[in-house]
Automatic annotation (TrEMBL):
Residues 1-92 form the HTH arsR-type domain. The keyword DNA-binding applies. It comes from the Bacteria. PROSITE patterns: HTH_ARSR_2 (PS50987). InterPro entries: ArsR-like_HTH, HTH_ArsR_DNA-bd_dom, WH-like_DNA-bd_sf, WH_DNA-bd_sf. GO terms for molecular function: DNA binding. Keywords: DNA-binding. This is DNA-binding transcriptional ArsR family regulator. NCBIfam families: HTH_metalloreg. CDD domains: HTH_ARSR (cd00090).
Amino acid sequence: MANDPLSLTFAALADPTRREILARLAEGEATVNALAEPFDMSLQAISKHLKVLERAGLITRGRDAQWRPCRLEAAPLEEVDQWVDRYRDRWEERFGRLDRELHRIQNSTEGEKNHE
């Protein structure tokens, strides 16, 4: 796996469990136990997911006495958004062409039905 930040972020986001963890952290910080609660997996498995997220810079883990809260870090997600945005115009233009073609087909099909 490549070690550039964007590749690490995409690799971390590729797993649905990690995406759910990030969604939970978007609501506010949480402990490992709280993050593990909705999943049918061990704390060790959750910790492995958290390490992937941490390595990608998507979360940080603090220390407050015995409590080790995890926090979402938005910067890597902003980098993904910027990368995707470079292609947005191209996609929108292609979807526009597809939409026009579908309307043309629909109109020609309706015209044929009216002539029957």
